[in-house]
Design a protein that fits this description.
By secondary structure, the chain is of the alpha+beta class. 18% of the residues lie in helices and 46% in strands. The protein has one domain: Sandwich (Immunoglobulin-like). The protein has a six-stranded antiparallel sheet. A hairpin with a 4-residue loop joins strand 2 and strand 3. The radius of gyration is 13 Å and the shape is globular.
């Protein structure tokens, strides 16, 4: 399960997506918004995990309003070692 916490005030109907460097696109489901932020989750398939482990960076995209996407780059340095530890 991949979980991210986004800032409050996002435009919920636009949803949240993850995109790897090589173009793997993963949709996330917004679960709830708390005082700490909005929580989005997705269950990753083995193929998606393999794609994430083989890359250096991914982006998370969400919107502040109907027409303003926000894209945040996330380093994947250490992701392979981290996933190995939890398996």
């Amino acid at each position: 399960m991949f979980v991210t916490v986004l800032p409050l005030g996002i435009y919920l109907p636009s949803g949240v997506t993850i995109k790897t460097e090589k173009g793997t696109l993963i949709a996330m489901t917004l679960q709830a918004c708390t005082q700490q932020g909005c929580i989005a989750t997705t269950k990753l398939s083995a193929k998606q995990i393999k794609a994430i482990k083989s890359e250096n960076e991914m982006t998370i995209t969400f919107s502040a309003d109907k027409s303003t996407p926000i894209t945040v780059s996330v380093s994947l340095n250490g992701i392979s070692a981290g996933l190995k530890e939890i398996n």
